[in-house]
UniProtKB/TrEMBL annotation, chain A:
<keyword id="KW-0175">Coiled coil</keyword>
<feature type="domain" description="CusB-like beta-barrel">
    <location>
        <begin position="209"/>
        <end position="277"/>
    </location>
</feature>
<dbReference type="InterPro" id="IPR058792">
    <property type="entry name" value="Beta-barrel_RND_2"/>
</dbReference>
<dbReference type="InterPro" id="IPR058637">
    <property type="entry name" value="YknX-like_C"/>
</dbReference>
<dbReference type="Pfam" id="PF25954">
    <property type="entry name" value="Beta-barrel_RND_2"/>
</dbReference>
<dbReference type="InterPro" id="IPR058625">
    <property type="entry name" value="MdtA-like_BSH"/>
</dbReference>
<dbReference type="Pfam" id="PF25917">
    <property type="entry name" value="BSH_RND"/>
</dbReference>
<feature type="domain" description="YknX-like C-terminal permuted SH3-like">
    <location>
        <begin position="285"/>
        <end position="352"/>
    </location>
</feature>
<comment type="similarity">
    <text>Belongs to the membrane fusion protein (MFP) (TC 8.A.1) family.</text>
</comment>
From TrEMBL, chain B:
<keyword id="KW-1133">Transmembrane helix</keyword>
<feature type="transmembrane region" description="Helical">
    <location>
        <begin position="487"/>
        <end position="506"/>
    </location>
</feature>
<dbReference type="InterPro" id="IPR001036">
    <property type="entry name" value="Acrflvin-R"/>
</dbReference>
<feature type="transmembrane region" description="Helical">
    <location>
        <begin position="382"/>
        <end position="402"/>
    </location>
</feature>
<feature type="transmembrane region" description="Helical">
    <location>
        <begin position="1055"/>
        <end position="1081"/>
    </location>
</feature>
<feature type="transmembrane region" description="Helical">
    <location>
        <begin position="21"/>
        <end position="38"/>
    </location>
</feature>
<feature type="transmembrane region" description="Helical">
    <location>
        <begin position="960"/>
        <end position="980"/>
    </location>
</feature>
<feature type="transmembrane region" description="Helical">
    <location>
        <begin position="461"/>
        <end position="481"/>
    </location>
</feature>
<keyword id="KW-0472">Membrane</keyword>
Length: 357, 1101
């Protein structure tokens, strides 16, 4: 009993001592400018299935020559943008021209021959009427006309074919796109069917990724997909699934999906990105990334408690745009300082907006 | 006064009375004393040798239940065979068995450990073949750091601090007698490879490849030398990582003809780890000048802990270490780093020892004043000269006997002080008296020898009785035995030395310096006898004594009053056990609580926090921060260091409580240093008591958090004050029972800091590989494991040898939190199959949510769980008995009544055959053991004294009369405790033992004088009266010496009980003894005379 009452006396003294310190702190709080605050709220954040993939082009054209010949002109370079109809390649035409000339002379010869045969038929028709010649002769003249006519047709079509070859010697771009590779150089021999260059259409870009079998059921063509491209600073593009290739790999258990990307000049095929497929929602505490400060090697925030800033060490989780998920350390409804200078330390007095004197 | 044969005392006096040897003896003893004081190691508390060791065996992948069956049970069987083992505590947890073996107190340490090693290794075959090698680790009190330095700075982070601390530690290791220098806190440099699972996947690199890329490409090997040109030339393969860039540019895989570098798939950083799981902070409190500076709060901190070698002097080692640190601070430690000594056992011991030496001097001074007052200054000086000599001999015996100078040693000396002046007083007093009464012509030297000789036998006997009584403390077993050992060792030696010195030095000095009081001889108008002139005190005594002698009714009344007072006093101690309101609850107003050892006023206390096991470390930190805000408002706090995610630097108490060395997200500790106890008016006990409700208020917001405010116990450390050990056959049942008992604890008066060993269930995602699917995808379980290890927790894949670094730096690969993979959805983790195709893990495993494996505890081969509590102001006796009443025979989980036990004087062993059992452990057990041992010691001592006296007096009854003074002491003991406001404790019990010695001595001297008087032909009544009157002065003198000598101890929280028992008991007992003993003797003598010769019976009135 005796000891306890004495102890109380000391306790009372102990409480009296810090009083001046408290009042000083309050003055400091009154003098310092109000600091902006953020309230911690738990909100729905999407549960996403993030799957990496690459941007691919839907139209990729491998240009080759039909005609065989030396490449006379090949001025485009890799990366060059071309419009539909732009000249890409010209093949040496000498052979084609010769063939046309040859065909033309064949046509002329056939025309001459046909004219001669027709005159024969005219002559023998009148003679045969008079009986001056044998009917047999007339019949033979008629056959020669038919043959000559066929020969002419043949010669004409040969000319047409030769002239058509001339069109194949100049190759123009079939699409608006970009030259992605050039395999041959001017002067090289273009053989039929070999790729000389590749043009990619940028009209439609796709994002190709593989999803695991477990998530297959959660994905259909209506599922909204956000594609984040790392190289574009994490820029996000909203796409939609064009289709799921219905045949999966039986070893890796993965299915290919193609997501149609919106038209954007920054997007280039081959870019690495992640398709974030939204599977559902989840409640989590989220704060802006900017409020996180580092004190003594720890990442955390300053929570305002009874007019003082208290440092709180946080475990941060996923990054959601400008925000960051807080996995542990903050309770719902707590107020945190949103702009923290170096002067703010644990225990610093804080004048709260609206609450300051 | 005829020429008689000299006894031991007389002969010693005769030999040394004029001898030059006496001077040599004095000088030699004094010198030895100086050597002993300087050389004997100093400690705060006596070292309690409890050999203990931990045996741990790993069995990867086994569940707790399997570990229990396969490892713990066989290990316990093996260890049980070893002699001298006290307790075996085991823990079976997932993949690991830990068995802690505690040997009995006092077992030799090295031998015990050798036995343990031998037994464990010899029985290796009894363990499963896939179990790891048993690891035996000794738990050694000598490894507990004696000095800790905390480096803290508002400018540097703990990574930088650690680097400085490492440099400082290197310079400390060479200090003499320093054993282990360790660094706690801070973070080591590492090269962190933060893997991005998505990028890995995009590059077609799997975790498995990343894993092997590191392990296979960081190699250096010396090769066989070659000989060229007649010379040997060395060859070495050198492909080690030498910088973070090496790691960054390491190739992990080749993808479509292009190499994929680590930098493509991961972020490589060099420095402190980015994801922190444990940390330490240091703050100055209001008790320090720096406490007002806001920048000096919550600084990152790193602690250097220094332990000393066994047997080395803590004071010397600590001072040497501190000196080195100070010099380092002056030379290379940056000025803005605060280096604070946060623990200094050396200084603590030195302060305790110096304070007690001071107290010893004060006690000596007061005794000296009493002597001057009673004997005159010459005589007083002679007695005072003997004291340092006796103490010197005792300390020399300590040095030779391996007893350190510690608090208990010094308390023993203070206690002995009151007793050891006695021999010299008795001798000098008798010489003094003889000088006063002897005839003028007698030879001074002969008178001196005769005077010494006269009291020789009685003094020897009395001293021997006291020695015997104190030596009985050797019978106290266990930790308390070790604790009280210095008393049992020192007091008898001091007593023995005191008589020898009294017989050698006192007559010599008296002969040289004392004058004969011829004046007294002139007015030698003796009343009844030749025993000098009765002073005022003697006259008062005689006036009080006569009625007792003459009236039978007065005697009976006196006897009744004494008995009534004895009963009343005993009731003060016993009331709470028998009172109608029950044993629980607050103490009654007049009651004296009976405890074990009261808490001590310390300069430090520890706050041990353990959150529910599923608490993230950040949440633990939040809780700790809230407590530190409270701490920063306490005016007595000098500084405090918080440890989150790990326990602080271990101390002896923590080792025993099992709180040292804990790590984990839910663990925290705050070590609080208070202002020096001499500069503060509030004791640490009160500070803690007042602080507790504040912490409790914070704790209320954190359900499941357990917090203990631990004060270093003054005596042996214990797991808990109130400890219920619950034994039972079934884990689930024990859990239910534990909750039930915990609730009962919570409902008990004064319980605080309730803890239990049942962990909270932690949700576990059990990843079970689908064997068929994995096989079809051509992936092995080992590959899955490798991948998962990197994703969850990461792994040190390799070590880089950096040029500027003394130690190799770990290269750790892990998946950082920002890419954290949800364990329920492993679709982002890929493993390459044997064809090189990546397969998502989600396709290969099943994820089963379950509760994590709970550890299974065993104690002494039975399943156990503990519930413990501390008491804020009362003693465990009442709480335990109250709980016992409520818990005994409650229905246990198996439907049978719960059996409780271990409240007897013999320790019960667990036995679960009849169902669940509750054994009371902790302080209760220790209290019972100590009281048992002390009662046995007291009983044994009294019996031995009795036999001794029977032999001396050749009578059975006279010894009983002599010993009747012992129970008289009880009258003073409990009221004394009540007046001072102290609990009756184990030291009070030691006080009773001491008291017995003292008061028996008093009555012996009275009886001896009565018999002497009778021999000189005095009538019985005069003889008894005169003996009482003559002995009154020396008895009062010795009593006063004892009271004043021990008075300085009363304020000590621990040894106060001893002083209270001794002082109040002695006062009351002495006051009554001088009446009771002569009266009883007379009654007995008369009875004997009546029986022997009825005719002579009428000589007395």
């Amino acid at each position: 009993m005796r000891n306890i009452s004495r102890a109380f006396a000391f306790l009372a003294l102990g409480f009296l001592l810090p009083v001046p310190a408290v009042s000083v702190a309050e003055e400091a709080a009154a003098n310092s400018p109000p600091l902006p605050l953020v309230k911690v709220v738990r909100r729905d954040i999407p549960v996403t299935y993030s799957v990496p993939g690459s941007v691919i082009s839907d139209g990729r054209i491998e240009v080759s020559s039909r005609v065989v010949g030396f490449i006379e002109q090949l001025d485009v370079r890799e990366g060059q943008t071309v419009a539909r109809g732009d000249l890409l390649i010209r093949i040496d035409q000498t052979d084609i021209d010769a063939a046309i000339r040859q065909a033309r002379s064949s046509v002329t010869a056939a025309e001459e021959d046909l004219g001669d045969a027709e005159q024969d038929v005219e002559k023998y028709t009148s003679l045969a009427r008079t009986g001056a010649t044998a009917t047999e002769t007339l019949r033979k003249a008629k056959v020669r006309v038919a043959t000559a006519s066929a020969t002419l047709d043949k010669a004409r079509s040969a000319l047409g074919a030769a002239e058509a070859q001339k069109g194949y010697a100049t190759i123009t771009s079939p699409v608006d796109g970009v030259i992605v590779s050039v395999a041959r150089r001017s002067g090289e021999m273009a053989t039929a069917g070999t790729t000389i260059l590749t043009v990619e259409s940028h009209e439609v870009l796709l994002f190709k990724a593989f999803i695991s079998e477990a998530n297959l059921a959660a994905v259909n063509t209506a599922t909204p997909v956000a594609v984040r491209i790392d190289t574009l600073g994490g820029a996000t593009f909203q796409g939609r699934i064009r289709g799921i290739v219905p045949s999966g790999d039986d070893v890796t258990r993965r299915y290919e999906i193609n997501v149609i990307l919106p038209k954007d000049a920054r997007l280039v095929p081959g870019m690495f990105g992640r398709a974030e497929i939204r599977l559902g929602e989840q409640k989590a505490a989220v704060v802006p990334q900017a409020v996180i400060v580092n004190r003594g090697g720890l990442d955390g925030v300053f929570v305002v408690q009874d007019g003082t800033a208290r440092f709180r060490w946080l475990r941060t989780g996923r990054v959601l745009g400008d925000d960051i998920e807080v996995v542990s350390g903050l309770s719902d409804g707590e107020t945190i300082l949103s702009a923290v200078g170096d002067a703010v330390r644990d225990g610093s007095p804080v004048a709260v907006e609206g609450r300051a004197r | 006064m005829s020429e008689i044969r000299l006894n031991f005392a007389g002969r010693l006096a005769q030999t040394f009375i004029t001898s030059k040897l006496t001077i040599v003896f004095i000088i030699a003893v004094a010198l030895m004393g100086v050597v002993a004081v300087l050389q004997t190691p100093r400690e705060e508390n006596p070292q309690i040798v409890v050999p203990a060791a931990t045996v741990s065996v790993a069995l990867p992948g086994a569940s707790a239940a399997e570990v229990e069956q396969l490892l713990v049970t066989p290990l316990e069987g093996i260890l049980k065979e070893i002699q001298g083992i006290d307790h075996i505590d085991s823990t079976a947890q997932n993949s690991l068995a830990t068995v802690q073996v505690q040997f009995k107190v006092g077992e030799p340490k090295e031998e015990s450990l050798v036995k343990l090693y031998d037994r464990v290794l010899a029985s290796r075959s009894k363990l499963p073949s896939d179990a790891g090698t048993p690891l035996v680790q000794s738990i050694d009190a000598d490894d507990v750091p004696i000095v800790t330095f905390t480096l803290a700075s508002p400018k540097y982070d703990d990574y930088a601090l650690r680097r400085i601390a490492e440099r400082m530690a290197e310079r400390l290791r060479s200090t003499e007698n320093v054993s282990v220098v360790s660094i706690k806190g801070g973070h080591e440099r590492e090269i962190a490879v933060e893997l991005d699972p998505d990028r890995l996947q995009a590059f077609g690199v799997t975790l498995t490849q990343a894993y092997s890329a590191f392990t296979a490409s960081n190699l250096s090997a010396p090769l066989q030398p070659t000989v060229r040109d007649g010379k040997v030339e060395a060859i070495k393969l050198s492909a080690s990582f030498t910088s973070a860039d090496d790691v960054r540019n390491q190739i992990v895989a080749v993808h479509e003809g292009r190499p994929v570098y680590v930098r493509d798939v991961a972020t490589v950083t060099d420095g402190p780890p980015s994801e922190i799981t444990a940390l330490s902070r240091f703050s100055f409190g209001p008790g320090d000048d720096r406490g007002a500076d806001a920048g000096m709060a919550d600084m990152p901190a790193v602690t250097i802990a220094v332990a000393k070698k066994k047997g080395a002097n803590a004071v010397v080692v600590a001072n040497a270490a501190i000196d080195r640190v100070e010099r380092m601070q002056a030379s290379f430690v940056p000025k803005d780093i605060q280096v604070v000594v946060t623990r200094d056992d050396g200084e603590k011991a030195d302060a305790a020892v110096n304070l007690l030496l001071e107290h010893l001097l004060v006690a000596l001074g007061t005794v000296g004043l009493v002597l001057i007052f009673f004997l005159g200054w010459r005589e007083a000086m002679i007695v005072m000269v003997t004291v340092p000599l006796i103490l010197s001999i005792t300390l020399l015996a300590d040095l030779l006997g391996g007893v350190t100078i510690n608090r208990v040693t010094l308390f023993a000396l203070i206690l002995a002080l009151g007793l050891l002046v006695d021999a010299a007083i008795v001798v000098i007093e008798n010489i003094h008296r003889h000088y006063g009464t002897a005839k003028a012509g007698a030879d001074k030297q002969a008178i001196t020898i005769l005077a010494t000789n006269e009291i020789g036998n009685a003094t020897n006997l009395a001293t021997f009785a006291v020695m015997l009584v104190f030596a009985a403390l050797f019978l106290v077993t266990g930790m308390a035995g070790d604790y009280f050992y210095p008393i049992a060792f020192n007091v008898p030696i001091a007593m023995g030395a005191s008589v020898v010195v009294a017989y050698i030095v006192t007559p010599w000095a008296a002969n040289r310096w004392l004058h004969r009081h011829d004046v007294q001889e002139e007015d030698a108008h003796e009343q009844e006898a030749s025993h000098g002139q009765p002073g005022r005190m003697e006259r008062l005594y005689l006036r009080l004594f006569r009625p007792l002698q003459q009236s039978r009714s007065v005697r009976i009344g006196f006897g009744l009053v004494i008995v009534a007072m004895m009963l009343a006093s005993s009731m003060q101690g016993a009331w709470q056990f028998v009172r109608p309101s029950g044993v629980g609850g607050a103490s009654s107003y007049l009651g004296v609580p009976i405890g074990f050892l009261p808490k001590d006023n310390k300069n430090t206390f520890n706050i041990v926090v353990s959150m529910p096991e599923n608490t993230p470390v950040e949440q633990t930190d939040r809780f700790v921060r809230e407590i530190s805000v409270q701490l920063s408002k306490e005016p007595e706090v000098v500084n405090y260091q918080t440890w989150v995610g790990q326990a602080g630097v271990e101390d002896f108490n923590g080792l025993f409580k099992g709180t040292a060395g804990r790590t984990g997200n839910h663990v925290a500790e705050i070590r609080v240093n208070l202002t020096d106890k001499h500069h503060r008016s509030k004791s640490s006990i009160d500070i803690v008591r007042e602080f507790r409700p504040k912490v409790e208020a914070i704790r209320a917001a954190y359900p499941g958090a357990k917090i203990s405010l631990v004060e270093d116990p003054p005596g042996p450390p214990l797991r808990s004050t109130v400890l219920a050990e619950l034994y039972g056959p079934d884990d689930e049942g024990l859990r239910t029972l534990s909750a039930q008992v915990r609730k009962a604890f919570e409902e008990t008066y004064d319980t605080v800091d309730i803890t239990d060993t049942e962990p909270v269930d932690v949700l576990e995602h059990r990843i079970e590989p689908d064997k068929e699917k994995a096989a079809l995808s051509r992936i092995s379980t080992a590959q899955i494991a490798e991948a998962l290890i990197l994703v969850y927790g990461g792994n040190t894949l390799s070590r880089a040898h950096l040029a500027d670094e003394r130690n190799p730096v770990a290269v750790r690969a892990f998946v950082p939190r920002r890419y954290a993979v949800d364990p329920t959805r492993l679709d982002r983790v890929f493993v390459n199959n044997s064809d090189g195709n990546p397969v998502p893990l989600s396709e290969l495993v099943r994820i089963v949510p379950t509760a994590a494996d709970r550890p299974i505890f065993h104690r002494d081969n039975e399943k156990v769980t503990f519930v413990g509590a501390e008491l804020s102001s009362t003693v465990p006796f009442y709480a335990v008995l109250d709980l016992q009443k409520r818990l005994n025979a409650i229905t246990a989980p198996d439907g049978q009544p719960l059996r409780t036990g271990n409240l007897g004087f013999k320790e019960d062993v667990p036995d679960t055959i009849g169902g669940y059992q509750l054994l009371w452990g902790g302080e209760m057990r220790m209290t019972l053991d100590v009281y048992r041992d002390m009662s046995v010691a007291l009983g044994g001592a009294l019996l031995a004294v009795y036999f001794l006296l029977v032999a001396y007096y050749r009578s059975f009854l006279i010894p009983m009369i002599a010993m009747s003074s012992v129970p008289l002491g009880i009258i003073g003991i409990f009221p004394g405790h009540w007046l001072v406001g102290a609990d009756f404790s184990a030291t009070s019990m030691v006080g009773i033992i001491a008291l017995s010695g003292v008061v028996i001595r008093n009555s012996l001297l009275i009886i001896d004088f009565i018999q002497d008087n009778l021999r000189q032909g005095m009538p019985l009544d005069v003889a008894t009266r005169q003996a009482g009157a003559v002995r009154l002065r020396p008895i009062l003198l010795t009593t006063l010496a004892i009271i004043l000598g021990s008075a300085i101890m009363v304020t000590d929280p621990v040894f106060g009980g001893l002083a209270i028992s001794l002082i109040f008991g002695t006062v009351v007992s002495t006051a009554l003894t001088v009446f009771v003993v002569p009266v009883l003797y007379e009654i007995d003598a008369k009875r004997r005379l009546r029986r022997a010769a009825p005719t002579r019976a009428e000589t007395a009135t």
